[in-house]
Design a protein that fits this description.
Arc Repressor Mutant, subunit A; ROK family protein; 375 residues; Nucleotidyltransferase, domain 5; alpha/beta; WH_DNA-bd_sf; WH-like_DNA-bd_sf
């Protein structure tokens, strides 16, 4: 019922009953319960036609339901908060040396940002944290670029924040955001690639995120593309992210803190015609297309959406990447590489969306978190 109201807007109880197949009395009873949780509100009356009583319409509310997505990455922390209807309540991204700070300092920073967000949002129905690594049941089993192994992140943050906390892979969460509201929104078969220090992927197949047997799918950055190549942060050699990660662009982006400053430095050098930077971008573009062709041959997506620094430098990277992809894909050039428009907040936005989905799946979790409307 909640999903119907979210997708179709204001409608009558009779409309909801017809769409869901539920009995009208059941719909009426459930609506009363959802109103008590502050998730549905009366939305006035409207005429059902020339004959008959005016109908009482209802609409999704949930303005008091705060859904918070956090992301911790190698050199920044980001947050995106929304209410149940998707209205943005909080957004920030701050430079932070997570790779060098150590686990304790990272936890302190995440708690600080979450509490700041809660102060502005009013209440939190839940938190989901995006991490660049392998995640299983709230535990970060391995995040090579952060130096984390077997970190029970969900439990650690839940003890500090007192609300339900989930943890997910950053690229998977970004892929969900792209599918929901990105440049290729609604495309049932697509791949999302995040370009930062590391490279991750989220794979959407038939409208659903492909998670794999253990939830570890999408580790695209560790595809072996060059057996004689450089050593990767995971400990292996020749991984795709050693060819297309931000560090592959060399000194032009290596000295400035934070992803934005790094990418701006590279973009400025390219705009000024710096030959080394232009050559490096063309080379990264070719490797991007090569790795992308492996994914296209495996999953046959209609679109590859590139985010992070890939999107910021799309004008330089996508042409050589698309050309290389089309040269190597067996099935031809029906898959297009597209630049994300969500910026570096894609993962935190997807994380907040996951909290919203959990509330829609089980509204009663609001009672366990103490998230009820005032009055």
């Amino acid at each position: 019922m909640l999903r119907h109201l979210r997708d179709h807007g204001t409608c009558s109880r009779a409309d909801v009953a017809e769409a869901t197949g539920l009995h009208r009395a059941t719909v009426s009873s459930l609506m009363t319960e959802l109103m008590s949780l502050g998730l549905v509100r009366e939305a006035g009356t409207s005429s059902a036609g020339a004959i008959g009583r005016p109908r009482r319409d209802v609409a999704l509310d949930g303005s008091h339901v705060g859904a918070l997505g956090l992301e911790i990455n190698v050199d920044y922390v980001a947050a995106h908060g929304s209410d149940l209807g998707g209205r943005v309540l909080f957004s920030c991204r701050e430079g932070f040396d997570a790779a060098g700070a150590g686990l304790s300092a990272c936890l302190t920073e995440l708690v600080r940002v979450a509490r700041r967000a809660a102060g502005e949002m009013g209440s939190l129905a839940g938190v989901v944290v995006a991490v660049p690594g392998l995640v299983s049941d709230g535990v970060v089993t391995f995040a090579p670029n952060l130096g984390w192994r077997q970190v029970p992140l969900a439990d650690l943050l839940r003890a500090e924040l007192g609300v339900t906390v989930g943890v997910g892979n950053d690229a998977n969460l970004a892929a969900l955001a792209e599918y929901a509201c990105g440049v290729a929104a609604g495309t049932p078969d697509m791949v999302y690639l995040t370009g930062e220090v590391g490279v991750g992927g989220g794979i959407i197949v038939d409208g659903r995120l492909l998670r794999g047997a253990d939830g570890f799918s999408g580790e695209t950055g560790h595809l072996l593309v060059d057996p004689g190549g450089a050593r990767c942060g995971c400990g292996r050699t020749g991984c795709w992210e050693t060819k297309v990660g931000l560090a592959a662009l060399g000194p032009a982006g290596a000295t400035s803190p934070g992803p934005d400053a790094r990418v701006n430095s590279i973009a400025s050098a390219a705009a000024a015609g710096d030959a080394r930077t232009l050559d490096a971008l063309a080379e990264v573009g070719r490797w991007l297309g090569l790795g992308g062709s492996i994914l296209v041959n495996l999953f046959n997506p209609r679109a590859i959406v590139v985010g992070g620094y890939f999107a910021r430098l799309a004008e330089r990277l996508i042409p050589p990447a698309q050309a290389e992809l089309e040269r190597r894909v067996v099935a031809g050039g029906r898959c297009k590489i597209m630049a994300s428009e969500l910026g570096f907040e894609a993962a935190s936005r997807g994380a907040a969306g996951t909290v919203v989905d959990r509330v829609l799946d089980d509204p009663l979790i609001l009672e366990s978190n103490g998230t009820r409307p005032a009055g």
